[in-house]
């Protein structure tokens, strides 16, 4: 459940969170950072991402703290603040500003606590911290600011009434609404909605009356306030009404033709608001239809359904009072074990009201089903010469049908959208979702075999075979001369070309050098550019990545520097064993036929959290934190 507004009641130390359906969550007591979903106790500022309210607190001076839509949103805001404002500060320097003496803090003690908890040295700057240390600093601040100590939670449900003539909402319809022993004269608003009826008391009678043409009051709806939110649609025909209970909040119907659902793949630089503007929709509607919990968080390569519900996306379920994992599993047709595994729940008997649970009906076993393993690798498809012509590769243009404008007699014409952005990335992402962090020895798809090369995943480096497989499956040229060499983009100059800046889907090549003499060994690694981290490193999606934490190697997103050594290890070089070597970024490449598109692209790489993508988009079973030494192809 996504909250859109919050009000702080200081006298009772309660935050009233309101969802889009009108349902309220009351968080009372506990630590201030738990109550406000604000792990870092951030002061409210203008245009704060994820903020849905402000709470004024006297401690002892007056402070206006931000109230966030979720703990995750508050945590993201804290991360953004530290990187934006304190990037060039050490921890002691940062605390002089973050928790000054003037606010009754002890910045020296605060800094000592953070450094002790995170292992960060006194002279290290925030901007130089790797993601692991930075995450520890974030957690330490949350702990110092109250530790998110929980208080009590209470859900308050509502009844929503919307009036329609059967095709569109009807405004300014007068009703007499009786709640318990008190009556009100209300009218529907521009969207055909009455004021939200809050269930302040269980069992309270709710009666809605309408004055008919004969001057008599007709009861058009009656109900009892209970422990669930009800959405009532009153359909009017002349002065007669028929009531229908809806499963979710009714939306105002489109006034003209209705657009059929279309599929959209998130591109670099996209936001939900940009996508919504492009398709004459709205961000909240797209988020709801695609089960997106945080509207500020979408991922490149993510599949969205516009003008319809995405049946293939994960659904987010908010635990209600009285829920158990067994009830939730039965309601969604999945197994308890799958839900527990996907959400890293160690004890299936311990879930809490308000807790968000991800449910993947496609990636999970439904009740009574078992997984089927592949018997033989699939036969690779032949690609015709006609398919390889530059003019016909991956244009994927969709001519959209018109959507009616609310204030126009003519439909709005939507221009065709050209989704050519690195189609091979969709293949890589599909593979990452399929294997979910599975170790290389257990992966059944042999990418060497699938590009007609030799070797097994467990004994032959497969970073190059995986990238070539992704190109081949998306009908792009792949290297047949150097299929298993991590240096194939540099060697195969007929099919690949160097570019001077990273773009989404670019091939990122690394080279391995000897410590003594800095000699190139002929080895290295190749990965696909997915995005960038808050530190400016590249987030690379590739095979044979992750090291021992991920079963020796898997298909995942990893962190790579373009300026520093990314890995140090020992290997055999020209029959000499145990030679100390290091791996470093070399160059970026794209297929020759993609050169112009890459050159013309103005989209900036999206800033992503590597572990967030691995865990939430790819749904990894292994929740290990990524490190900087995750190159493959050794």
List the helices and strands and how they pair.
Elements: E1 3-9, E2 14-19, E3 24-28, H1 32-35, E4 51-58, E5 62-68, H2 71-85, H3 91-98, H4 107-118, H5 131-144, E6 152-156, E7 158-164, E8 174-179, E9 182-187, E10 197-198, E11 205-211, E12 217-224, E13 230-237, E14 240-246, E15 262-265, H6 272-278, H7 283-289, E16 303-306, E17 315-318, H8 325-332, H9 336-342, E18 356-359, E19 397-398, E20 403-404, E21 411-412, E22 417-418, H10 424-435, H11 447-450, H12 463-473, H13 488-491, E23 496-499, E24 507-514, E25 520-532, E26 538-545, E27 554-560, E28 567-573, E29 576-591, H14 595-600, H15 610-617
Parallel strand pairs: 7-13
Antiparallel strand pairs: 1-2, 2-3, 3-6, 4-5, 7-10, 8-9, 8-11, 11-12, 13-14, 15-16, 17-18, 19-22, 20-21, 23-29, 24-25, 24-29, 25-26, 26-27, 28-29
Helix pairs in contact: 3-4, 4-5, 6-7, 10-12
Concise description?
The protein is 20% helix and 28% strand. It has 15 helices and 29 strands.
């Amino acid at each position: 459940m996504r909250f859109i507004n919050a009000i702080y009641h200081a006298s009772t130390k309660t935050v009233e969170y309101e969802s889009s359906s009108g349902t309220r969550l009351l968080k009372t007591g506990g630590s201030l950072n738990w109550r406000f979903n604000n792990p870092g106790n951030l002061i409210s500022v203008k245009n704060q991402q994820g903020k849905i309210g402000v709470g004024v607190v006297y401690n002892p001076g007056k402070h206006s703290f931000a109230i966030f839509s979720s703990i995750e949103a508050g945590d993201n805001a804290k991360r953004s603040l530290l990187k934006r404002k304190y990037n060039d500060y050490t921890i002691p320097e940062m605390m002089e500003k973050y928790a000054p003496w003037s606010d009754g803090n002890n910045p020296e003690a605060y800094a000592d606590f953070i450094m002790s908890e995170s292992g960060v040295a006194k002279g290290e700057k925030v901007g130089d911290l790797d993601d692991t240390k930075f995450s520890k600093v974030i957690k330490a601040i949350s702990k110092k600011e109250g530790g998110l100590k929980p208080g009590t939670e209470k859900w308050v449900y509502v009844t929503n009434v919307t009036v329609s003539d059967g095709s569109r909402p009807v405004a300014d319809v007068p009703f007499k609404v009786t709640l318990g022993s008190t009556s009100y004269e209300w009218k529907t608003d521009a969207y055909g909605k009455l004021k939200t009826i809050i269930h302040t008391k269980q069992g309270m009678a709710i009666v809605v009356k309408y004055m008919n043409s004969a001057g008599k009051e007709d009861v058009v709806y009656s109900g009892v306030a209970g422990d669930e939110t009800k959405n009532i649609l009153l359909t009017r025909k002349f002065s007669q009404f028929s009531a229908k209970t809806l499963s979710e909040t009714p939306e105002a119907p489109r006034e003209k033709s209705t657009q059929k659902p279309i599929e959209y793949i998130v591109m670099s630089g996209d936001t939900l608001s940009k996508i919504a503007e492009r398709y004459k929709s709205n961000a909240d509607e797209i988020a709801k239809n695609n089960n997106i919990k945080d509207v500020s968080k979408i991922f490149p390569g993510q599949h969205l359904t516009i003008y319809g519900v995405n049946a293939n996306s994960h659904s987010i379920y908010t635990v209600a009072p009285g829920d158990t994992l067994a009830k939730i599993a039965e309601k969604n047709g999945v197994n308890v074990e799958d839900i527990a595994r996907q959400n890293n729940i160690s004890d299936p008997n311990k879930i809490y009201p308000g807790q968000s649970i991800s449910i993947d009906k496609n990636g999970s076993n439904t009740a009574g089903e078992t997984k089927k393993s592949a018997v033989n690798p699939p036969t690779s498809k032949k690609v015709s010469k006609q398919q390889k012509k530059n003019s016909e590769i991956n244009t994927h243009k969709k001519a959209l049908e018109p959507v009616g404008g609310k204030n126009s007699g003519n439909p709005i014409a939507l221009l065709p959208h050209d989704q050519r952005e690195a189609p091979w990335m969709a293949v890589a992402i599909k593979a990452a979702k399929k294997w979910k962090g599975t170790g290389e020895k257990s992966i059944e798809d042999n990418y060497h075999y699938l590009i007609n090369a030799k070797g097994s995943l467990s004994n032959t480096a497969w970073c190059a075979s995986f990238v070539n497989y992704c190109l081949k499956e998306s009908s792009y040229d792949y290297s047949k001369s150097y299929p298993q060499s991590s240096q194939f983009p540099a060697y195969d100059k007929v099919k690949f070309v160097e570019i001077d800046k990273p773009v989404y889907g670019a091939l990122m090549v690394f080279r391995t050098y000897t410590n003594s003499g800095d000699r190139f060994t002929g080895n290295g690694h190749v990965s696909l550019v997915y995005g960038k981290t808050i530190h400016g490193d590249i987030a690379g999606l590739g095979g044979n990545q992750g090291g021992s934490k991920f079963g020796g190697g898997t298909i995942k997103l990893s962190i790579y520097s373009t300026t520093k050594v990314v890995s140090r290890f020992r290997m055999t070089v020209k029959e000499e064993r145990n030679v100390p070597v290091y791996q470093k970024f070399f160059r970026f490449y794209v297929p020759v036929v993609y050169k112009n598109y890459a050159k013309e692209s103005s989209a900036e790489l999206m800033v992503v959290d590597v572990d967030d993508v691995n865990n939430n988009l790819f749904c990894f079973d292994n929740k290990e934190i990524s490190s900087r030494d995750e190159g493959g192809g050794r």
